[in-house]
Amino acid sequence: MVSENFNIEAPNYLSKESEVLIYARQDSQCIDCFQAFLPVHYRYHRPHSKDGETFIVLNNPDLLMYCDQEFPILKCWAQSEVAAPCALKTKDICQWNNMKYKSVYKNVTLQVPVGLTIHTSLVCSVTLLITILCSTLILVAVFKYGHFSL
Q: Could you tell me the membrane topology recorded for this protein (predicted)?
């Protein structure tokens, strides 16, 4: 679940840090295990002048636990710390507890390829040339095979 004002198409330099809520499902093969899948979308980054890569650091997530009837083994805590939606498709707000856990890695760093600034004029020229060529081919096909009636 992503906030409503989240723009997936915004480039890196115009976007803000956002919050994503993932509701894990219990693993059918392990009673104490949960699975969650998160698709990753890299934002556009400006080209660099020297190397063709940039690094993105993903901080470790917060692990929130909601104590209800589905967790009969756990005793509910007296005070909950975080308010968040109860489920993916509801707008009801529940109180969640921020769990402490031991992470295998401190943070995850992703290496993302980016363009080089020295290629800017070449990329713009080729893009303009291909756009003109394709537009011309479309116009030729329309006038050659199109049936016009007034």
A: Single-pass membrane protein
